[in-house]
Backbone:
């Protein structure tokens, strides 16, 4: 197992924005996260890849405590992730999350999906929230759908709305849990384009994905997970051209052979 | 036939049905309120509230309504001297509403919980992910969708409630329809079958629109996914 630390962190950024120390989690007998140590710097884009069942989604979901952990410590911007209650809700508001299945609020319009958080969690005035929402929807190219319900939009459009909904909270970090895995192939790029744009603007991102193109284009660091462990981490070019571990070589061989 | 029609001059059948409608109306509102709170308890992250909700549902759902309403009259009213109004009849009427509400709240709770099951887990996760805590997430995201998924089972509870309002006779609400029916049969035993059919038809007429309405509404209001 090689886990060399890459000096991708800009010198000025100080303490890491997201930090996991000795994180362990079991699903019954299954040890899904084994002693995970990870630090993500401000503005860094980290792509997590690995075979299914490697624990990468669980890792992503643990960072805003949609999954609890058995032991270890997760901190966001220096604050330890609270166990529950108001403090946890407050911290989650600072962590944007984009799901594989979009999870737009099905009974609310596209516009309401984006304004709900700012109004109900941040206490923003509704007019102000609407302006913010419209500008974010415009940014991801779905502002002309604002009055529709989620079910009336394509998967790609729904996922871009989900990105806008997360951005409306002005999060410190964005988590993407396989954001393109449920999409038809022709819609993948429109979502990836929005994500690349976000990365270029300096958003801190942790992205679980199978999209190697995105990793090459936008990632500062690639983390390869297998069997609940971080097997190796490297800059994208380095990882794709010269993987160190056998598991990574095997995995890349399988997905890049076509 | 003339005999039969003369019944309606002697006995005020519509007034008796009106008592059932009033009992049902108030009990439906209270049962909906209590049942919603119970459903919140059952889906809440707090174990003691979950336990309370489950215990309530299992006790009230599994106790015969006759016993609950008879207890209201004999236990609360006669023995414990609990009165909900200065007028005797109004007090008994209100106690019957309390009994009907408490009993049907258990069924409302389970109907709403079945509605909650129609809401994908991802909706709650997305709500939590933008920083909503349990109550706002339930109020803004989960319950609105759950109610829309629970219209048909809630309609069934309402139908059962309207018919069960006749059990209020066990709580000594003598003015409601089954009480009147008993009186009528006692004095006009020559017309037993027409009397039965009259009251049966009355309830069918009351209940059919509710079935039609809830079927229509559950289709109309279904959340598109």
Residues:
């Amino acid at each position: 197992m090689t886990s060399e630390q890459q000096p991708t962190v800009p010198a000025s950024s100080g303490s890491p924005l997201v930090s996991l120390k000795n994180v362990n989690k079991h699903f019954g007998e299954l040890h899904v996260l084994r002693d995970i140590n990870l630090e993500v710097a401000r503005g860094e884009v980290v792509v997590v890849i690995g075979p299914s069942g490697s624990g990468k989604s669980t890792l992503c979901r643990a960072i805003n405590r949609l999954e609890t952990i058995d032991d270890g410590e997760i901190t966001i911007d220096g604050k330890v992730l609270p166990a529950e209650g108001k403090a946890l809700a407050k911290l989650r508001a600072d962590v944007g999350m984009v799901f594989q299945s979009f999870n737009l609020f099905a009974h609310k319009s596209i516009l309401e999906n984006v304004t709900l958080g700012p109004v109900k969690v941040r206490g923003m005035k509704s007019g102000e929230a609407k302006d913010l929402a419209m500008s974010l929807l415009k940014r991801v190219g779905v502002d002309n759908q604002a009055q529709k319900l989620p079910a009336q939009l394509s998967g790609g459009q729904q996922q871009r709305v989900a990105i806008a909904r997360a951005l409306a909270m002005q999060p410190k970090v964005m988590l993407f849990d396989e954001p393109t895995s449920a999409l038809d192939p022709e819609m993948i790029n429109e979502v990836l384009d929005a994500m690349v744009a976000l990365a270029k603007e300096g958003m801190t991102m942790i992205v679980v994905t199978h999209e190697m193109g995105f990793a090459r284009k936008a990632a500062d660091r690639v983390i390869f997970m297998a069997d609940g462990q971080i097997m190796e981490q490297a800059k994208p070019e380095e990882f794709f051209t010269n993987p160190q571990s056998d598991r990574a070589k095997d995995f890349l061989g399988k997905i890049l052979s076509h | 036939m003339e005999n039969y029609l003369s019944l309606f001059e002697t006995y005020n059948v519509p007034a008796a049905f009106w008592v059932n409608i009033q009992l049902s109306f108030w009990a439906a509102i209270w049962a909906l309120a209590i049942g919603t709170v119970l459903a919140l308890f059952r889906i809440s992250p707090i174990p003691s509230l979950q336990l309370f909700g489950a215990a309530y549902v299992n006790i009230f759902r599994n106790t015969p309504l006759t016993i609950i309403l008879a207890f209201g009259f004999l236990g609360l009213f006669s023995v414990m001297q609990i009165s909900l109004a200065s007028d005797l009849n109004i007090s008994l009427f209100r106690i019957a509403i309390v009994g009907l509400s408490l009993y049907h709240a258990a069924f409302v709770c389970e109907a709403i919980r079945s509605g909650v099951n129609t809401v994908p887990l991802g909706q709650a996760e997305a709500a939590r992910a933008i920083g909503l805590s349990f109550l706002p997430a339930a109020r803004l995201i989960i319950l609105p969708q759950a109610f829309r998924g629970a219209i048909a089972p809630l309609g069934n509870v309402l139908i059962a409630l309207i018919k069960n309002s006749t059990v209020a006779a066990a709580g000594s609400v003598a003015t409601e329809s089954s009480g009147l029916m008993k009186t009528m049969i006692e004095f006009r035993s020559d017309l037993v079958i027409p009397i039965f059919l009259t009251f049966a038809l009355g309830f069918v007429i009351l209940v059919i629109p509710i079935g039609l309405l809830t079927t229509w509404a559950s289709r109309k209001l279904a959340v598109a996914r």
